[in-house]
Design goal:
This protein has 326 residues and is α+β, with helices and mostly antiparallel strands. 49% of the residues lie in helices and 10% in strands. It is built from 15 helices and 6 strands.
């Protein structure tokens, strides 16, 4: 696959003929996620990254980020050792991605461990959504519907979710689904009530604790996705940031059909999933849902293929070709 060609094409993956899916998945299996100088985010978009690690002397991170600037080395009490490297407010600039590359190299060179307890968090400046109830409604619906896809994607370069995932980033989609009637009122106040159920909880996959609607236009006002596994792979971190920001922008730009999302949510609700069944779907390949998700939030094939490569991971092609949600 030619990356430049993929960037300028926008295929509707949901419409790939069933007979062609296996060939398409074979192509994806050979694709390598590139590390880019830019994700083509608008200049107004801002984000933050927190990278947890274990097994490396925190003093080395302290010294490195002090020289680098723009990042902070902190302690995280949920980890057995190591610490957390936290960014300042970032934007989509070549310098930012160069700095992230250097941080990942530091972690790799010092044998930092990210395969047990360490998580990675991506925060987004809420000024992209502002005080527009429709944008917040769309974000909530997209997240509810496709959290199962995002949880699997969040494994990154790992084969499973980290040991502490269910304690510090547990999925909230089913709980949100039970409260979705608040969204249908289509008022900022009702959406605020919907989100306030989760804002005090810093142990969910999505965290609205820092969200303050009175400061919704400030880039320093944020919400956070906490579900990602940590990693020392800069390509995976960039891919995590891209998915989070492009999902937010799809809601902000209202490029998603709200009624279609409601129809899909009705179908999900009709499954009457137990918590265990929901987690089972989070771990398995839901190919149709993944194709729908990338078509909804991305406007180019490069973004879509990068997401699907990480989402599909090491699954067998036979499983991928047949894996579909109800």
């Amino acid at each position: 696959m030619n990356n430049k060609g993929l960037l300028y094409s926008n295929t509707n993956f949901s419409e790939i003929p069933r007979n062609d899916i296996l060939d398409f998945l074979n192509l994806i299996s050979k694709f390598e996620i590139p590390y880019r100088d830019s994700l083509n985010l608008p200049s107004s978009a801002s984000f933050g990254v927190e990278i947890e690690y274990e097994g490396m002397d925190k003093a080395k991170a302290d010294k490195f980020v002090n020289i680098l600037g723009g990042w902070e080395s902190t302690i995280d009490s949920t980890l057995e050792s190591g610490g957390e490297i936290v960014s300042s407010r970032l934007s989509d600039e070549k310098r930012v991605w160069q700095d992230l590359y250097l941080i990942c190299e530091l972690l790799k060179c010092n044998d930092a461990k990210t395969d047990k307890n360490a998580g990675l968090h991506v925060s987004v400046g809420t000024h992209l959504l502002g005080r527009d109830y429709h944008s917040w409604e769309l974000l909530a619906k997209i997240y509810m519907l496709y959290e199962r896809v995002l949880v699997r994607f969040a494994k990154g370069d790992k084969h499973r979710m980290r040991d502490t995932f269910i304690y510090f980033a547990r999925p909230l989609g089913l709980k949100m689904l039970q409260q979705r009637n608040l969204l249908e009122k289509r008022r900022l106040g009702s959406i605020k009530s919907f989100l306030e159920d989760y804002e005090e909880n810093k142990k969910g996959a999505i965290n609205f604790r820092s969200l303050d609607f009175s400061r919704a236009m400030s880039p320093y006002n944020t919400f956070e996705l906490r579900l990602f596994n940590s990693t020392t792979d800069n390509c995976v971190i960039q891919n995590d940031v891209n998915a989070t920001l492009k999902m937010t922008l799809a809601a902000a730009n209202k490029s998603v059909d709200s009624d279609l999302l409601s129809e899909r949510l009705d179908r999900l609700e009709a499954q009457k999933l137990t918590g265990q069944e929901y987690l089972h779907q989070c771990n398995n390949v839901l190919l149709r849902d993944a194709f729908e998700f990338v078509d909804l939030i991305f406007d180019n094939d490069l973004d879509k293929v990068c997401f699907l490569k990480q989402y599909l991971g090491d699954s067998s092609l036979v499983t991928m070709a047949s894996g579909r949600s109800a």
